[in-house]
Design a protein that fits this description.
Length: 522
């Protein structure tokens, strides 16, 4: 496998210094600066306060829940537009959401939590076909308003409203804008209001990462593409959504996995035909190639390198590249690129979860608990993090915490992914000596596998891990041998430490050989 350039800068390196402290049987994750998770980049030494060009766009408020997608979308699109002005230091929407939720209405506390000089806050209200938006720029240290404005325009003018707000905020913070900065602020992926609205709705549902919500996101992106057939970003997001379906093993009553893959490639190819410089199009193509060539990952690395060259500060691109590396056994590389994603967006539960898995595969259990802590601090409903933390807590002697996490995994696992909670509860019950309860927990997951000739790797390996713990090796192998495809992703899951009891078994070794990528890191 091609070796990666090391990540420069203390920010990413600092993330890798997480300390996990074991005390009184409990595991408490601690970040390098002594703060609790989620861990982010450290503030530069010797800096008394945040830079005067640092700002965060707070999530706009709306009284109507049906407009939540519009409030969120407006916030995120303004944030993205401001990123075109390199002189500004913009906080990611995920970091803003966490700190804003923790300090509702307290602007000074939000400013301190985000370490920014300026805050942008606003409200939206839809009245018939009119959109009323009020926004102001606030000094976070004293809550004084420096600039404010209000719009009452047709809902179809939301694109112009976004641009006007971004331009005025940028000029009030950074001063006179250059021609290049004005051009960047004026750029837009689509000029069609309906397509833009559908795109915002799709983003809202895609962020929820459940089968039902991602299916709805696909419908919204498809509607956006119908409204604007030249909307490359919409096609790229369709491709990403189908890749997520394949990756997480979600099923569709009308589509096979091959059909999902074909739909994903059709969307990715369309995105790149419309705009060969669309970074998300290249990322989605690389992601989909991992399912077209599950063992060799042919073309995957070049596609991601193209995406990274086009968008070196896109946290999703960085994260997905880290995912590819962890599947190929390059845990150091995966940690470095995931660290870069988290440095840009400090509240990425999926990236922290990836880091937990990387350290766990290396046999470093305590740091894995710390990264899982960070994932759950970012999103208390992120069920895979409860699953992994339950297991690492058990191995670190925290029996009570392990049982609580297993129960939390069961409660938070969405429809279509119930196995995450069921399987870890079965594991913990088995290790506790209650095999009867373990079999009750595992029964629904096993029932869903009946009659299925092929299984997805995440579901199959979770079920098999619980069966191994119960001593039912024959049934575990029956499950594992039905997993398709046998490639890098399956090889990654088979390297989990909780498969160690069967690691030397010839049948298990056969699975390892059949799944191992030819270019996997040794």
């Amino acid at each position: 496998m091609r070796r990666l350039r090391p990540v420069a800068g203390a920010r990413a390196l600092g993330l890798l210094l997480l300390l996990a402290v074991c005390a009184a049987g409990n595991v408490v994750g601690q970040c390098p600066d002594g703060t609790p998770p989620p861990c982010g980049a450290l503030a530069p030494r010797g800096v008394a306060g945040p830079p005067p060009t640092s700002l965060a766009v707070l999530y706009f408020e709306t009284r109507d829940t049906t407009d939540a997608y519009l409030a969120d979308g407006l916030t995120e699109e303004i944030t993205t537009s401001l990123g075109a002005v390199a002189r500004l230091q913009i906080k990611s929407p995920s970091a803003v959401r966490r700190v804003q939720r923790a300090n509702p209405g307290d602007l000074r506390a939000i400013g301190r939590g985000l370490r920014v000089f300026w805050l942008v806050e606003g409200t939206i209200r839809r009245a018939g076909g009119q959109l009323r938006v009020s926004v102001r720029l606030v000094n976070a240290s004293n809550e004084n308003s420096t600039w404010s404005t209000a719009f009452s325009r047709p809902v179809s003018d939301v694109l112009t409203i976004e641009q006007d707000i971004a331009r005025d905020v940028a000029s009030n913070v950074a001063g006179v804008l250059t021609t290049a900065e004005r051009t960047g602020l004026a750029s837009r992926p689509t000029g069609n209001p309906e397509a833009h609205d559908r795109y915002l709705r799709g983003n809202y549902y895609l962020a929820r990462r459940s089968p039902r919500d991602v299916a709805r996101a696909i419908r919204e992106y498809e509607a956006a593409a119908r409204a604007d057939p030249a909307f490359a970003h919409a096609y790229a997001r369709i491709a990403l959504a189908w890749a997520l379906y394949l990756d997480w093993g979600w099923s569709d009553p009308f589509l096979t996995r091959d059909s999902m893959l074909a739909l994903g490639f059709h969307a990715a190819d369309r995105a790149l035909a419309l705009d060969s410089n669309d970074a998300e199009g290249w990322m989605s193509r690389g992601y989909l190639l991992t399912f077209r060539y599950p063992r060799t990952y042919q073309g995957v690395i070049p596609a991601f390198e193209r995406a990274l060259a086009l968008a070196p500060r896109n946290a999703e691109v960085l994260h997905q590249y880290a995912s590819v590396l962890i599947q190929l056994g390059d845990y150091d590389g995966a940690m470095r690129w995931a660290a870069r994603a988290v440095a840009l967006e400090p509240d990425r539960p999926i990236s922290f979860y990836l880091m937990a898995n990387a350290t766990l595969r290396e046999g470093r259990v305590a740091p894995a608990a710390g990264w899982a802590d960070s994932a759950l601090a970012s999103d208390p409903q992120f069920y895979p993090a409860y699953s992994v933390r339950a297991r690492v807590r058990w191995h670190l002697g925290d029996r009570v915490g392990a049982k609580a996490d297993a129960e939390a995994a069961r409660r938070s696992s969405p429809t279509g992914a119930e196995y995450w909670g069921e399987c870890v509860q079965a594991l913990i019950a088995t290790w506790s000596g209650d095999t009867a309860a373990a079999r009750v927990y595992l029964a629904p997951a096993l029932a869903r596998l009946e009659g299925r000739a092929e299984l997805a790797d995440r579901e199959g390996t979770n079920v098999a891990m619980a069966l191994v713990a119960l001593g039912d090796r024959g049934r575990a192998y029956d499950v594992l041998e039905r997993i398709r495809p046998r490639g890098a992703q399956l090889w990654f899951w088979l390297r989990d430490p909780d498969f160690d009891p069967v690691r030397d078994d010839p049948r298990f070794q056969t699975l390892i050989r059949e799944a191992r990528p030819p270019e996997a890191a040794r």
